[in-house]
């Protein structure tokens, strides 16, 4: 990074630290998801976003050593114990939840109780693997009569690092084997030839036969949900990091090229890259922040000019989020990064700050500033 680029990232970091110092007084050890009307709504501990706030607090603690933030993150992690006991609400998002709480704390402090929790979570995630279809099952039947035993989703690529971590920590290859088989399935069935991705692929859970695709949080089955593309960029580059298998790097690059080629002028994506006329093209800043982290990780794993290309693309997105989307000086907005879109088809949390947008923005800054290893 040039000195000028470093200067903006340092400035953004200082603003982030100051803002979170304030917001943490209200949010405390709660589980924010979307900031509606300027205030983060808190969700139950079982909600899939439960790891992002404590993960963000750990990113800041690593630099500031602020004991207050550490205690909040630890309290969030302890509250997740009840989610394991309750069991019924657990789904594929175990990876998001325990990577940014227990794995993060274990990596930063070596705490044995966090290692135990993360290993338990990895076992529960591994148990969702469908051996016939080679996919980690998404969700559960949340509503009466719902049958989603055959569903797999692109988001789940971000859950795989928990399995890789478990193999590295225990020496037991089963976790990694499941992660590799799920990632291979995703390369085959999710990443389309043009680099766009499917959100949901449906298999016959008994035979493993692929049945259909579903638009999920994107506009339509054949459209291109931008956050799904971001999950693919980052998830595939993480799979490459853990395995060295070039097919994951190629998949990450393909998704990255599609993502970059479809960005508007300010480098922050619309919520879907293929919207028909008449459908509102809200931005999804969270997709931009997550993709930026994936681009930075690709850059770290390739050389020379190619590395500069991916790194600069990631920096451009983060810089635009900082200058055009940040709520730094707002006393009436708790979110850091505005204009995220959580679930347009269900009309939920549209054009608002999202905690995962904030998390990935802060992770991206932390990478630019060289603060330390990934929690993933
Ligand atoms: N399903 C996780 C997401 O909204 O990206």
From TrEMBL:
Pfam families: Glyco_hydro_88
Keywords, in A-Z order: Glycosidase, Hydrolase
GO molecular function terms noted in the UniProt entry: hydrolase activity, acting on glycosyl bonds
Enzyme Commission identifier(s): 3.2.1.179
Record keyword Hydrolase present: yes
InterPro entries, sorted: 6-hairpin_glycosidase_sf (IPR008928), 6hp_glycosidase-like_sf (IPR012341), Glyco_hydro_88 (IPR010905), UG_Glycosaminoglycan_Hydrolase (IPR052369)
Family: Belongs to the glycosyl hydrolase 88 family.
Protein name as catalogued: Unsaturated glucuronyl hydrolase
Organism: Paenibacillus allorhizoplanae
């Amino acid at each position: 990074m040039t000195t000028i680029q470093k200067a903006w990232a340092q400035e953004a970091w200082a603003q982030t630290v100051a803002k979170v110092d304030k917001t943490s007084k209200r949010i405390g050890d709660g589980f924010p998801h979307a900031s509606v009307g300027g205030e983060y709504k808190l969700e139950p501990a079982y909600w899939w976003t439960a790891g992002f706030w404590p993960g963000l607090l750990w990113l800041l603690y690593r630099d500031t050593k602020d004991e207050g933030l550490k205690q909040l993150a630890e309290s969030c992690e302890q509250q997740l114990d009840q989610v394991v006991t309750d069991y019924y609400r657990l789904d594929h998002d175990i990876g998001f939840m325990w990577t940014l709480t227990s794995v993060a704390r274990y990596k930063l402090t070596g705490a044995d109780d966090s290692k135990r929790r993360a290993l338990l979570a990895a076992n529960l995630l591994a148990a969702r693997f469908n051996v016939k279809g080679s996919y980690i099952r998404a969700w559960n039947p949340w509503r009466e009569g719902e049958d989603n035993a055959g569903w797999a989703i692109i988001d789940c690529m971000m859950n795989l690092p928990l399995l890789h971590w478990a193999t590295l920590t225990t020496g037991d290859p089963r976790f990694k084997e499941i992660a590799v088989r799920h990632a291979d399935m995703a390369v085959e069935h999710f990443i389309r030839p043009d680099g766009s991705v499917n959100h949901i692929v449906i298999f016959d859970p008994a035979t493993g036969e692929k049945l259909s695709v579903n638009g999920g949080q994107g506009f339509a089955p054949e459209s291109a949900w931008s956050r799904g593309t971001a999950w693919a960029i980052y998830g595939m580059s993480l799979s490459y990091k853990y395995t060295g298998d070039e097919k994951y790097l190629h998949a990450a690059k393909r998704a990255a090229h599609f993502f970059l080629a479809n960005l508007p002028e300010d480098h922050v994506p619309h919520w879907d890259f293929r919207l028909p006329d008449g459908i509102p093209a809200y931005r999804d800043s969270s997709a931009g922040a997550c993709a930026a982290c994936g681009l930075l990780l690709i850059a770290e794993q390739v050389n020379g000019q190619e590395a500069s290309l991916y790194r600069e693309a990631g920096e451009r997105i983060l810089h635009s989020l900082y200058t055009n989307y940040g709520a730094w000086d707002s006393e009436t907005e708790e979110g850091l990064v505005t204009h995220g879109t959580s679930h347009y088809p269900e009309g939920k949390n549209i054009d608002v700050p999202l905690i995962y947008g904030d998390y990935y923005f802060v992770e991206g800054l932390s990478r630019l500033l060289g603060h330390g290893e990934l929690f993933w």
